[in-house]
């Protein structure tokens, strides 16, 4: 007997024997629920035998038999009542444990988020994909009919979602496309670095969602709860069902602020800020202007994160402001990086190191932020240098800019679309799902080994649009993505190191070297960042104009 814990109250197991009951007692279980009908198998112990063994060791029991694949709403209610009234922890069993896990999932449907339920059962080795709609429906049996169906459904209305919708509409305006997103506003997130440096006003980086969704695209203002790729369905919160012929998954990623103990409680106060949030970027500039002396920490968590250069962009622009004000000589700048290098593409490191030296910043590699005490102005880092025992250190600060840990959204990680790490599993060239051939993904949520940047999404959107149009026409993939990403590293106000690269770290410059040499800081690259890229985003990328983003065609071998 090897019970699998699903919650603090319940573990599930395949069929147990009377001898296993004593083991269950030794493991601390105080109650047993049998979900397997007597006589289902020739060598199966009866419930009476299990009950007698349990009575001998002081364990309570319940008999809630469920035929395989036939969990009724009344069974769920009986299971929920048993869990509520029995002493815990409880061990539930059936032939394999699946019926017990299913009963728990349906019983908890009204009190736990769907991704949490799917994650708990998945971690225990049980797939609840077949009852997703029932869980989303509060544990009760819903209709299997879709509430609406479309040629193409897009999950997510961030940069990648709006861009691919616009690219598709520009190619085939008659397509019935729906985009699903609960947000009221759409952000130009690359601009938040500039807000944190006092260059942009925050309102320059935000527009209403309705104003950016392409004309003719249906907007379903709702959150996605789960996917049913075998039935070509997306399940929304509240158990509404949206059907599709083809699906594009682009919900972005999750900023996991709660990963760092004490961080949520102190963000936006006590000198703790982040350019990764619209409402906090102005506070960054407020802190930079107000700091005249002391220690400033800039943190970077383990990869992957979106815009991997953003943590050090904040450092450089803050250092430049202190340099210009004369305060730099009194400020101790510390870059706390969980990784082992300043930047992953070596060609750009020499230029960046010049600014590290200019601002007299200390580079602390393999330092991962794990806890913050804002009022005490203290932070704790786990230091995990190669071939060295992990240690935890305490660092005092006067200002701290935090980059949060980042993961795929919960509903993606527990879905059948995800790889073992939780990201949508795609072919890195065509961006088509490796298992479900009518699903594509782009942007930050998929697992191609590229940098997660808005520039990458700008290149990916036309590739996906081309390949979907080809698929509609019964043809094979027509375009391929080369891994392009761009990171305009704002090393000082007025100069940018324009990093552009693709798969394997290959340099992929967009401009002739005499115009912009990306390996060196330049005024031209700053003008691109400040003046040209925002209108390219709002008026080009989000409207299906593929400026600087024509898809690379797949040529016959």
Automatic annotation (TrEMBL):
Reading the lineage from the top rank, the first entry is Bacteria
Which cofactor names does the annotation list? FAD
Key word Isomerase present in the record? no
Glycoprotein as a keyword?
Answer: no
Q: Which GO terms describe its molecular function?
A: FAD binding; hydrolase activity; quinone binding; sulfide:quinone oxidoreductase activity
Keywords recorded for this protein, A-Z: FAD, Flavoprotein, Oxidoreductase, Quinone, Transit peptide
Q: Which residue stretches, if any, does this entry annotate as coiled coil?
A: none
Gene Ontology biological process terms in this record: sulfide oxidation, using sulfide:quinone oxidoreductase
One Pfam family cited in the UniProt record for this chain: BLH_phosphatase
What the entry lists under InterPro entries is as follows: BLH_phosphatase-like, FAD/NAD-bd_sf, Prot-tyrosine_phosphatase-like, Sulphide_quinone_reductase
SUPFAM superfamilies linked to this entry: (Phosphotyrosine protein) phosphatases II (SSF52799), FAD/NAD(P)-binding domain (SSF51905)
* Record-linked NCBIfam families: TIGR01244 family sulfur transferase
Q: Please give the name of this protein.
A: TIGR01244 family phosphatase
Write down the species.
Answer: Ensifer oleiphilus
């Amino acid at each position: 007997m090897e019970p699998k814990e699903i919650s603090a109250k319940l573990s599930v197991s395949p069929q147990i024997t009377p001898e296993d009951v004593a083991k269950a007692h030794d493991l601390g279980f105080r109650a047993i629920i049998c979900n397997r009908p007597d006589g289902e198998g020739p060598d199966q112990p009866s419930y009476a035998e299990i009950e007698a063994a349990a009575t001998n060791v002081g364990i309570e029991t319940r008999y809630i038999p469920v035929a395989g694949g036939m969990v009724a709403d009344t069974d769920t209610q009986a299971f929920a009542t048993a869990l509520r009234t029995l002493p815990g922890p409880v061990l539930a069993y059936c032939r394999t444990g699946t019926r017990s896990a299913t009963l728990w999932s349906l019983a908890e449907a009204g009190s736990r988020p769907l991704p949490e339920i799917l994650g708990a059962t998945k971690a225990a080795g049980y797939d609840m994909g077949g009852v997703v709609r029932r869980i989303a429906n509060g544990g009760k049996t819903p209709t299997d009919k879709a509430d609406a169906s479309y040629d193409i459904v897009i999950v997510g209305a961030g940069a990648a979602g709006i861009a691919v919708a616009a690219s598709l509409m520009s190619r085939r305006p008659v397509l019935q496309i729906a985009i699903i997103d609960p947000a009221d506003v759409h952000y130009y997130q690359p601009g938040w670095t500039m807000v944190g440096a006092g260059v942009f006003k925050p309102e320059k980086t935000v527009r209403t969602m309705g104003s950016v969704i392409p004309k003719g695209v249906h907007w379903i203002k709702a959150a996605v709860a789960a996917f049913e790729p075998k039935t070509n369905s997306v399940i929304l919160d509240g158990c509404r069902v949206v059907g599709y012929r083809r699906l594009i998954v682009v919900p972005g990623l999750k900023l996991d602020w709660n990963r760092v103990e004490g961080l949520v409680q102190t963000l936006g106060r006590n000198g703790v800020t982040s350019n990764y949030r619209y409402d906090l970027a102005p506070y960054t500039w407020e802190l930079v202007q107000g700091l005249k002396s002391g220690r400033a920490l800039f943190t970077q968590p383990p990869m992957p994160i979106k815009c991997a250069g953003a943590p050090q962009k904040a450092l450089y622009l803050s250092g430049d402001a202190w340099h210009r004000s004369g305060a730099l000589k009194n400020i101790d700048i510390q870059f706390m990086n969980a990784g082992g290098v300043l930047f992953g593409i070596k060609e750009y490191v020499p230029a960046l190191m010049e600014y590290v030296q200019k601002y007299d910043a200390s580079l602390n590699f393999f330092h991962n932020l794990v806890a913050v005490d804002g009022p005490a102005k203290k932070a704790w880092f786990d230091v995990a240098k190669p071939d060295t025992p992990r240690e935890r250190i305490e660092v005092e600060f006067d200002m701290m800019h935090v980059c949060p840990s980042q993961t795929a959204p919960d509903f993606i990680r527990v879905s059948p679309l995800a790889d073992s790490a939780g990201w949508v599993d795609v072919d890195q060239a065509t961006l088509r799902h490796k298992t479900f051939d009518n699903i594509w993904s782009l942007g930050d949520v998929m697992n191609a080994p590229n940098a997660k940047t808005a520039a990458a999404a700008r290149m990916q959107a036309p590739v996906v649009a081309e390949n979907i149009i080809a698929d509609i026409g019964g043809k094979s993939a027509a375009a391929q993505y080369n891994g392009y990403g761009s990171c305009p590293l704002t090393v000082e106000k007025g100069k940018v190191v324009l990093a552009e690269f693709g798969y394997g770290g290959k340099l992929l410059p967009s401009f002739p070297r005499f115009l912009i040499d990306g390996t060196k800081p330049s005024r031209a690259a700053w003008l691109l960042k400040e003046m040209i890229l925002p209108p390219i985003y709002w008026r080009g990328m989000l409207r299906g104009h593929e400026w600087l983003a024509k898809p690379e065609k797949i040529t016959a071998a």
